[in-house]
Design goal:
Layout lengths: L1 H14 L8 E6 L5 E5 L5 H4 L3 H9 L14 E10 H4 L6 H12 L10 E2 L3 H9 L5 E9 L1 H10 L7
Helix pairs in contact: 1-3
């Protein structure tokens, strides 16, 4: 499928009369499922993104699950400790999706491209909570951009107004 994605993009760019150096050399799917593409040596990602809509349309002919195209950016993994289980685990809490939504809504510049996850096995956390052993646990989440991550480490992160 990777060769098909590169081919679809290059054919679409050709038909839209994009300059010859605006082409994809290679496309691959990484371990997390994201598709990465390497541009022609004389092309920057910024140049390719001028054709963003064409690229998205072309890729969707091969893989309908693609939702966006953007420049490569580092994703930084962060941990938060002492997350109250009463708020984020159990029936009626909306779980960690609620936490992710709160992170993005209450902290400027945060985009979390993956779901927030419990650091330990959720089943074990739930059992320990029911046994009265713990009332909080730790989560791991990913943010786009090392500057955003550094800012969160320095200033802290807000969730639920705290």
């Amino acid at each position: 499928m990777d060769q098909e994605i590169a081919s679809a993009i290059n054919r679409a760019l050709f038909h839209q009369k994009a300059p010859a150096h605006i082409r994809i050399m290679n496309a691959k799917r990484n371990a997390k499922g994201a598709i990465t593409a390497i541009t022609h040596p004389n092309e920057t990602a910024e140049m390719a993104l001028q054709y963003r809509d064409i690229i998205i349309t072309a890729v969707r002919t091969v893989n309908k699950g693609v939702v966006d195209v953007e420049e490569n950016e580092t994703w930084e993994r962060l941990m938060i400790h002492a997350v109250p289980l009463i708020r984020y685990m159990g029936k009626g809490t909306e779980g960690l999706q609620k936490m992710r939504d709160e992170f993005e809504a209450e902290n400027e510049g945060i985009v979390s491209p993956t779901p927030v996850r419990w650091l330990a096995n959720p089943h074990t956390i739930k059992e320990r909570r029911q046994n009265g052993e713990i009332a909080a646990s730790s989560v791991v989440f990913v943010v786009k951009g090392s500057k955003v991550a550094q800012s969160l480490v320095q200033k802290g992160i807000k969730a639920a107004g705290v």
